[in-house]
Amino acid sequence: MTKQMLGNPKLNVTPIDSVSDGTNHIVVDSVQCGNQAMIMEKNMPVTMQDGAVLYVNAFRPNKSGTFPVVISADTYGKDNKPKITNMGALWPTLGAIPTSSFTPEESPDPGYWVPNDYVVVKVALRGSTDNNNALYPWGLSEAKDYAEVIEWAGVQPWSNGNVGTNGVSYLAVTQWWVASLNPSHLKAMIPWEGLNDMYREIAFHGGIPDTGFYRFWYEGIIARWPETHDIEDLKAAQQNHPHFDDYWKGKQANLSAIQIPMFVCASWSTQGLHNRGTFEGFKQASSTEKWLKIHGRKEWETYYARESLEQQKDFFDYYLKGIDNDWQDTPKVSYEVRDKFYQGQTKSASNYPLPDTEPTPLYLDAQHMTLNNQPIQTASSVSYDSEATENDEVRFSKTFNENTELTGNMKLKLWVSAQTADDMDLFVGIKKINRQDEEVNFPDFNHIENGQVATGWLRVSHRELDQNKSTPLQPWHTHESEVKLNTDEIVPVEIEILPSGTLFKKDESIQVVIKGSEVVKGNSTPGMSTRYEHSDTVNQGIHTIYTGDTYDSHLLVPVIPNH
């Protein structure tokens, strides 16, 4: 088994700015391995079939031989600022990100991988280099380019022919896409927290347009590449395609076409961006050899943590080097059941959703504002002003009489009406209340520390369900058309609440919040919409929720039995 080589403290680390195009002998400040000598090939051209040229950086061991390739691709720039410092002090809660100075954001760190006898290749996708090609994020054209670079990397003189993809966020999105094309040299993948349904997971939440991070992210792409004149107008796409039409379908990889081994990492904490899509990628991929790691912590901090790196390395050692390291004994699913902030228990399972999940209804009672194990016999209702600046919400609660683990999707079924409008935007939050009657906060998108257990949204006119894709705990909305409300019409809706894993101890409470605006507000810095926002709401006037008798409003929760 490969052992890391300890670095030489007498070697002087190479300044990034001193590296030039072509072959460079450099010293990298490896956090794990000390100062390490390696070779960097900067701005290597790779010509596509249509004649366009993409550029890559390659870091490789300073010795002869062939090595497996760890590759990542995005449009952020292969020479982007290291250690994600472009976020800077404006995001004070990122957590520790221990990387070498040659690590572009969200990318594999050459300071870790090269000393372990891997080649690290960083791809600048079309439109994100000095050339003036079109930049169209997250689609088939990008995937085809990525596949060509993978095939190129597989036949280089320093390659052993085995290529594995790795990376976070955009770098995971491109992995879902390229793996669906099955390039011959791609042998394994590590998609670490990345969406794959652009409509449901970033542009619209429950059919409600995201006016925050989605647009901020797009404007950031434009700001990175001012010389690239042909950048897909994602803000216009959101405005011109409010439903899940062919445009958005074209932004979605065919996950069922993925066949290679995968080590997937998902988080309970990136709801509204990466949470849902990572789980769907794992569930829908046809790969027979796949593993899922789930945590409830911060994204980049977890990706670069030593434990995570060693797990990634074991996986690639097995599939890219052929080392018998007992990787196959790794639990198919390992997941953190959160108790408090950064405190929880890691458990294992044979699959996800967890096979022994018991969908359990908790019935809403508007008369007492409680959640109950048994159906409510008496009909009642409760209302809130959806346009109020404060208290535009209602809350239903239940105290548990024994320790209860809830892991997976939840579903909230409601009977609702709007007094003076033909549509409604419903914002839903699930909260944990401790024995001291205080909310227990968790990390949440995007790296905030005042997050809740789980989140859901629905524009009521988008309530139509895809019956083939829906499951008891996960309603799947078509989002293909609108069904408006008639005056005072009472309709049933099913709201998808995103996956979470939380322990509610005896005498702790679960609380469901139904609100006319965002349940958890981000700590926005002016000009930095680093969290989802939904300011283009359809809400007007009074919203009413009906419970009891024929109105079987309930929260369906995923109870995991104690074994």
TrEMBL record:
Gene3D superfamilies: 1.10.3020.20, alpha/beta hydrolase, Galactose-binding domain-like. SMART domains: PepX_C. GO terms for molecular function: dipeptidyl-peptidase activity. It holds the Pfam family PepX_C. NCBIfam families: CocE_NonD (TIGR00976). This is Acyl esterase. The keyword Electron transport does not apply. It comes from Staphylococcus edaphicus. InterPro entries: AB_hydrolase_fold, CocE/Ser_esterase, Galactose-bd-like_sf, Xaa-Pro-like_dom, Xaa-Pro_dipept_C, Xaa-Pro_dipeptidyl-ppase/CocE. Residues 313-556 form the Xaa-Pro dipeptidyl-peptidase C-terminal domain.
